[in-house]
Specification:
13 helices, 2 domains
Amino acid sequence: MWARKYTKCIQCGTINKKHISRGLCVSCYQKDIESRHKGETKQRGIAAKKLTKEYLVNQYFKEKKSLSDIAKVSYCSREFVYKKMVEYAIPRRSQRSARKIALEQKKIIVNRLQDDGHIQLVTYQKIDYNEKFFASWSQKMAYVLGILYTDGCLSMQIHHGKKSTRRTPIISFAQKERELSSKVLSLLNCNARLHYRRKKIYGGRVCGSVYYFNIACSAIYPDLVRLGLKTTKSLDIEFPTIPQQYARHFIRGCWDGDGSVYFEKGRRHLTASFYSGSRPFIEGMLLELEKAGLPKRTVYILKRKHPSYYFKFRGHNCIKLYHYIYDDAPPTQYLERKHSLFKKYADQQRTALKDTKDRQISIFKTTE
C-alpha cells in the first residue's frame, strides 16, 4: 500500500509522491495548508497597521487565536503574522499547548478511512474525565478498577520532537459488550468517543469485533500505577491490596471483564468460571473469595503458547457468589446479561426450595 489505510493520494490520486498526512501527498498537503492558512482577501497596508504588539499579544494569548486565525481577520498571510511576532519578540506557544487549544476549539479535523472503504471526516476533541476518580477507594472506583485489570491496557505513547522526546501514558479499553464500555465511560465522567471495530483476521488469527476507547491518562497515571496496573500485565499481574469493604466490587468488575456465567451442555446447574493469564492474580482472587465464605477451588491450566489459569463454581456455590458480588450493587455497576443469568438461577432455586418445603408440609399434615 502507498500508506497505512490509503492506496493513493485522496486529492490527486498519485502514488509517486511521498504520503505526508491525512491521505495527502507532499504537494497536496502543502497546497491544503496554504489554502487553509491564507487570509480571505489580502489588502495592502491594513495588516501592517493592525498588527501592533498589543494587538498580537491580546489576540494570541487572551483570545487564544492561532497565527492562521489572526491572518484571516487581518487580511494577510500566516507568514506575515509570524514575521511580526518575531519582530516584537513575542514568544510562541509550545506544540503541546497549541494542540490543547486546537482540541478545545475543535479545529483538528482529519479524514479517517472506515472499514467499509468510505472516508469520514472526524473532529478531534479534548477528552475530559474525573482526574480524582482513582485517588481514593469507593464502590464505583473499585468496580471500574476491576474492569481495567481485565480489559484495560496501560501503555506509553512516545512522541519524538526535534529537540526532545515526550512520553504520554495511555489507557486503552476494549470489550465486545457495548453496554460495559459505555458504563465505564459514564462512571469516569469521560467524553471519549466509543469506537467499534469489526471482526478481522490477522495472519490467520481471528480478532473478534470490539468496542474500544483510548484516553491520554497523565492525570490518573500515578494512581493507576499505585493501584497495581502496569504496561505488561497479562501474564504476571497480581491481585491488588483492597480495603475489605470494596473487594467484592472489584471482583464484580473483574467478572464482568473476564468471567463467564452459563449453563453447561447437558447440565441443569449454573456454572461460573473465571480465566486469567496470571496465576498470582487467580490465586489472590480465590483467597479473597474464601474469606467471603466461598469454598476452596482448584486452579486448572489451559495449556497453549501462553497458558491460562481458571477456576469454576457450580450450582449452589454460584448463588453464594451471586449474593456476594451483586447484593446492593446499582445497575450502573454491573453487566446486565451476566447479572440476569445469576439472578434467574437464584430465583429458580429459591422457587424449587419453596415448592419442596410446601410438599413436605403437605405430606406431614396428611400423615397426621
